[in-house]
């Protein structure tokens, strides 16, 4: 049986880019017999009407409209959930991705039977300083939590085994951090994750939504990653540090005949509480992943 592919594009106020970029995507999908799902994430511009006009003309296109804005991850999750092909690939609506890369990643997925292939932007400059710093921090934390063999964990172009990624959608957030969390979920669960270099162009129209808010989302994302994947790897060393410091301090004072130090006891209790919190986080992580 021949394998099939769905292209998913999340779109929020991308009317200008869609007018320039979308016709070529439609023609490419029709030529290659790909399915195409565009998720209009409650855009306030004329994206909805524009997509509706394309939908009546192209049989390969399906438009999913959100009544309220769910976020980048929420839009991608709706598109993936609506896919019924063997593979599903996500690309951005801003025209930065090259359509020939869709074919390249699809061919590699079929040839390698990979569960996830990431379109790697390694070597390309980040869109903003906040984004570059955020990606570096997230990648560093991820390497602390697990053996990570891939570089570009938050690339917007990824091709997935559809049934497999649909199983993990409930674990992922609706924010921009979807890209990181879904990648780390595949890696953590020992699926075959590969990378393939892709080409990135400048935005056709509009501006990126990356800004100061991204820094705050990065902090929340790091906390989410820690709690979800391997919390004891973070909590345990901190707990041991406080307990060791408290015992060293308290033992010295006790041997001098000064009794039990309040400060040392506080440090030991702090370490014990952090250890117990780590065990609790580990249990919650196991429950969530099993669900």
* Total DSSP helices: 10
Please state how the strands of the largest beta sheet are arranged side by side.
3-2-1-4-6-5-7
Low-confidence stretches: none
Instruction: Give the N-to-C terminal Cα separation.
Output: 31 Å
One letter per element, helices H and strands E, the order comes to: EHEHEHEHEHEHHEHHH
Overall mean pLDDT: 84
What does the model show?
With 291 residues, the protein is α/β, with parallel strands linked by helices. The mean pLDDT is 84. The chain contains ten helices and seven strands. Helix 5 packs parallel to helix 8. The radius of gyration is 23 Å and the shape is elongated. It has helices at 15-32, 47-57, 72-81, 99-112, 129-145, 162-168, 178-188, 212-229, 232-255, 262-290; strands at residues 5-11, 35-40, 61-65, 87-90, 116-120, 158-161, 193-197. Helix 2 (47-57) links the parallel strand 2 and strand 3 (61-65). It has a seven-stranded mixed beta sheet, with helices on both faces.
